[in-house]
Batch of 3 targets.
Target 1
Amino acid sequence: MFIPEIEYNLILQKIPILCVDLLIISEKKCLLLKRDNEPVKGQYWFPGGRVNKLESIENASIRKAKEETNLVCDFIKILTIEETVFKKNENMLTDIHTVNICCLMSTIDICLLKIDKLHNNYKWVDKPDVNLHKSVNNPLSLFFK
């Protein structure tokens, strides 16, 4: 469901946004995408995004994996729930508050990987990294125990 930008910005000013963050695993590594938009532009993060009304967490996870990575993924389970608050900066119209349901996903054929226009790079990781945001490292720490 597409929400016009003006309407979406009004929503962002009033309520948190429910999102899925996808821990897509292949060969014991997790996929991270480098964001090309705010918030956290230039940082590596999980693929993912908002959950649409009447959409299950599982279906949102499968949809966002396909939209952002072109990968066909299987939903395994919810791993954790994180919360982020990003204060408005010069490139943002408002503060952004999200509740992120971190979902463990698997994929077999990574040859299909093609990142969308909201990202400009990717990497596969096998452990947390001090350079990553805590909302990325927390789920990675749970998975890579």
Target 2
Amino acid sequence: MAFTSLQLHPSLLRALKELGYTRPTPIQTDSIPPALAGRDVLACAMTGSGKTAAFVLPILHKLMDKPRGKTRALVITPTRELAAQIVEAINSLAVHTPLSGASVYGGVGMGPQEHAFRSGVDIIVATPGRLLDHFRMPYAKLDALEFLVFDEADRMLDMGFLPDIRRIIKHVPAKRQTLFFSATMPPPIAQLTREMLKNPVTINVERQAAPATGITQAVYPVGQELKSALLLALLKRGDMKEALVFTRTKHRANRLAEYLVKAGISAERIHGNRSQSARTAALAGFKDGTYRVLVATDIAARGIDVEALGHVVNLDVPAVPEDYIHRVGRTARAELKGEAYTFVAPDEESDLRAIEKAISKRLPRVTVPDFDYSAKPAGRLEIPIGERIAKIRAEKAGQRARAAEKAKRRDGGGPARPAASGSSSSGSSRRGSRGGGRSR
């Protein structure tokens, strides 16, 4: 089937052709016709399946002849990166139309976002928390809203956004078309769909979530302390031109990026402790080839869309099988090909077995020729948090000791006084000491 058979507006077909899209993916084939017909849609779609276009295209088509100046579509998504990605897709597909989208998320100023509300941008793509911040203001009215989209709904559940979603629903018109996309359908999400959707067309709801068929998956057994060295070896061998690498913690992401840079590999990291500008710059640098490796925590697992990304590496085995599916789904997007490597330490074998059970497949084990699996690690990738806290406390104690010694010398060599004495006699004594000091 070609996109031309979906009866989309010629301006959208022109944009699709220029973007190199000739035929819709299965989720687009199944979702676009009922969405164009005005039906609510409930779709269980794996990451990388092309679902963004599955809801953006019918909305753009139906907005084409609507009066401008009022926001008529709202897309709710869990992460800033995913919101930015969706707006980019909207503006690319709407390039030959007057329509546009704007993002609303935290970590950046509210001024441009307020302008989007006041000017009535056609489509707003928002994360729940920042959207609720705006809803406290009188300008954030969506009374003309006709389309409501929930993307990555199960991820929003994982991140604790379900109460926020219920609050958001109170701010939008009850009469609307709702498009609901989720990679999995846990009971709380299923219950939410029953409350929100009216006689929806259901798509792939019973299909078990699994990685895209174009992903070649492999497991690399290796000791925890040698994971970073193995990654470096694969990069230096040329096995991976570029790689998106997932770690379980922000600390490990920082340490791994530093390790790779010291070894001569251009790398950056993206996680929740970084500012939005730093996260945006890191992702942009990875997309344009400035960085060969982007190290990320799961905050980015559903928010990174890199065209023709060849490799995803799980430096740490995800504790939840669904997270594995979303991580590896960053490659082989839109029916392309890609490879996903998972480094497995002995203590992670149980998590790996849970993943293999979930995807109904035993993943092949790979040993890298010429890599010394018995080598002594150059250093630890992760310093235990207790040790890090102890180091911080020791540094603070040292600072206090140095400050006390400095005060002792300033007071003429007498015993160091407490920092907050407050008595008048000590004040006069200090003034006397300073006076004597000046006479010398």
Target 3
Amino acid sequence: MSLKKRLANVPEGAGVLFFIQIFATLGFAVLYSTLVLYATRHLHFPAKKATAIMGVFGAFNYGLHLFGGYLGGRFLSNRNLFVGGMALQVVGCAAIAGGSAPLLYWGLALFLTGSGLNVTCINMMLTQRFKPDDLRREGAFLWNYAGMNVGFFVGFTAAGHYQLTESYPSLFLFATIGNLVSIFIAAAYWKTLADRDTPLVEQTDRRKLRGRFAAGVGILVGLVPVVWILLQYPDGTETLVKVICAFVGLALAWLTLRHGDARERNNMWAFLILALGSLVFWALYQMAPSGLQLFAVNNVDRKVGGLEIAPQWIQNINTVVIVVGGPLMSALFVRLRTRGWNIDIPRQFAAALLLMGLGFLALPAGIALAGPSGMVAFAWLFASYVFQSVGELLISPIGYAMIGKLAPRRYQGIMMGSWMLVTGLASLFAGDFSGMIPEPSEGTPATTNHVYARLFAELGSGSLIVGVALVVLVPFLRKLIKDEEAPPPPPASITSGAVAA
């Protein structure tokens, strides 16, 4: 198929969302990769406090996606909510550039409210471009995920550059650029990004539409002081978020039990089981900007060929694997499936967990082979990130695409938000795990390596165990996951007549 025909086959708006995703990711990439280092080096927070804030950062960023999934398409259109959220991110990054602890908290409150509510909007706008049984959806999400990681690559590279000189104000002002560009692109293609098949589109009463819009804007602005207050008390906030996540999980289980359609109910059960597996994956993955980053800074030899690798540049191992591997994996899966290979969602999830386990188990191996100084060779950290990144390719974009397959139409926004909420909960567990690492002042790499080795070995083994459990459950999950039932065959008399004709 020619390139022109391939492009013509892409649903309207999918290409625009690919570029929006690139620029919308820049600000998040900067904060995600720099927050712990900024808090410990510039604001002189203890490592435990910095990792706790990072855990809450992830919890709000991902947890509010559930709220965004509910607001988008009901109170504000997904495109309106996206632009409003990006505007809050611009103001938030500018505030953090002020360089003080009070401005950090206000900046994070603004940024997290924006990023928490608008990420689901991109996913919903993209999934609305495809019918439920459209096989192109998985490829579109893989491409969109690759676009996201282009943004991560640029953000991590810039963050590492400014990190070497600790020019934090310039870095956070740079983060506003991508946010602004994504707003301009959305404005230029406003009509193309219109919502499809949402409760708000179906509403024709203009008075009610204005009321919903006003309520949506009020919620968007009103969340900022709430998030600001909660950021002041990370320990209490962590407990609160975990309770909310447990409530949401129980509510989804209750909705599943009461759902009338048997096929859709089975799909929802499969979603819940896979969500539990993904929780383990993301809890380890989210240690990259906190515990793993502090390990890299203090216990890993980051000089390669005479060049010092900035901590944020290590994250680009992940982005390169995603950007290069995403389209390749999409093409590979299409080819294998046309040849009869059964590569389905349960198998991909199980493989992702096994790869995550191997990635973490590579680190104790590197520690065991460290020299007298205790500094671990960079190659072991590199290998760990490669394993984790391939696992991410198997679970993350497929997880987004899975919503369109498994979620009933009326629950799609809520289940998309719930899927992101799992990542937010995982971020809290990642903060808990990262809080177990030693403070840099507690000793040398030679004396702290054993703590890291034990922690990484336990986490890696746990991921392998859950991965094996999912392998065992693959036949059961396949029975649960069913596409829409085929229509019944016509009566025998009609069939015979058609043949005779």
